[in-house]
Amino acid sequence: MKLIVGHTNMDMDCLGSMALAKILYPDHQLVTSRHIHPVAKKLFSLYEKYFSFLTAKDIKNAEVESLIVVDTRSQKRIAEYMDLFKSPPEKVIVYDHHPSDSMDIETDDLRYRAYGSNTTILGLEIIEKGLSVTPDEATIALTGIFADTGNFTHENVTIEDFSVAHFLMNEGADIAIIREFLKTLKEDHQILMFHEILNHLVYREIKGHFIVFSYLELEKQVAGLASVVEKVFDVENPDAFFAVFSFEKSQSSIVIARSQKEAINLSDLLGALGGGGHAMAASVLFKNRFGRGIYTDLIEYLEENIIPAVCAEHIMAPDVQLIEQDWSLKKASLFLESIDHTGAPVIDEKGSITGFITLRDIMKGRKADLMHAPVKGYMTVKVIKTGKKTPIREVEKLMYVNNIGHLPIVEADKPVGIISRSDLLSFIKRHRPNKLIDTAVL
Ligand SMILES: [Mn+2]
Questions:
Q1: How far apart are CA 14 and CA 51, in angstroms?
Q2: Last residue of a domain, one of 270, 305, 340
Q3: How far is the CA of 79 from the centre of ligand 1 (A)?
Q4: Gap from CA of 97 to ligand 1 centroid (Å)
Q5: What distance, in Å, lies between the first and last C-alpha atoms of the chain?
Q6: 81 Cα to the center of ligand 1, angstroms
Q7: Ligand 1 mean position, distance from CA 338 (Å)
Q8: Strand pairing partners for 241?
Q9: β-pair type (201-206, 109-112)
Q10: Domain termination residue (choose one: 159, 182, 205)
Q11: pLDDT mean by block of 10 residues, the chain; 442 residues
């Protein structure tokens, strides 16, 4: 047999990859996984006939001469098929966009590219070979690219994802259908739950991180809680979100969490409690615990174990260039030029910050031909400043809400550092892997 398989618990990118693999390898047959990921169920059931999947019973004891694996390179994630084969396949080709895993599939033909979606790897091969794609195939494939790149907004997205998307649009991909597939909250109970959670949010600052919690008691476990949590996380945009659900019938509880900060590593934090997942998304189930205690224990646990947030003192430049308020505008202007800055805090004779002067302020004096006038008369007196322990999130807010290029850091009103807009931007770029920088900051 010649077969195409994806990973267990097939998702949209997996199905998109399979649709394109079938074009590249028309003499191969597709095999369905035992479980379909909940997000891909709608896509799967609509196109199940088109795919004409083989199932476990069709491949039992199969002798496989060629196996195409898409969207994974991990042996574990294709074990449900491999366990059924009579012997290991003669030839294996792997298409994957995930990094290496300790249990990589053995192959001498690994087609790995770090694109946002795996579908893109196969899409490029189709373009290179000049093959054509039906509108249905284009729709399925493009859904996969949208799903794995967070609608082309996640950090992982590459130019190649856009190129293949362009090609698929030309081949007739239907955006209206794709939009339907990508809607996360499909069930009425999920929409109700979404609003219920929004009404029960608790906001807390823990070690400088802005964290949101919710606690809900439900009669029993329901499907799709994770996508509701995801949606709330998107809407609220905190550093991390911990949703606690307690189920009366089974006397159990689950914590589902999302994070967008490296410092809040959920796989470490919830892993230590017996849960699992990724750094940015994880959950933990408590089998014999019901009630609010889980929630209060969780907060206590996080207060002890979360790594403190990066704060102003970690990104500020400690050597602040200062201007004295009695200097003339001319002296201040020459000084700014010599240090190559566009502005600086102004201090009085005791060394306390009394204002901030910029080249633009000095321009006003120049126009009035008053370059001998003291800085005092032209500086901004309402200086936005903050302390060393202010979390970065707050620094960011101060700078863009007030539209300032420099934020002096003070201790007892004496300057101890300064943060410039470019210090802040380079920090954000380095530390928010999956988040677009708010364009307001730029
Ligand atoms: Mn993928």
A1: 13
A2: 305
A3: 18
A4: 7
A5: 55
A6: 19
A7: 52
A8: 212, 258
A9: unpaired
A10: 182
A11: 95 96 97 88 86 93 96 92 94 93 89 96 98 96 95 91 98 92 76 90 92 95 88 90 96 95 90 89 93 95 91 91 95 94 93 93 90 94 92 89 91 91 82 41 30
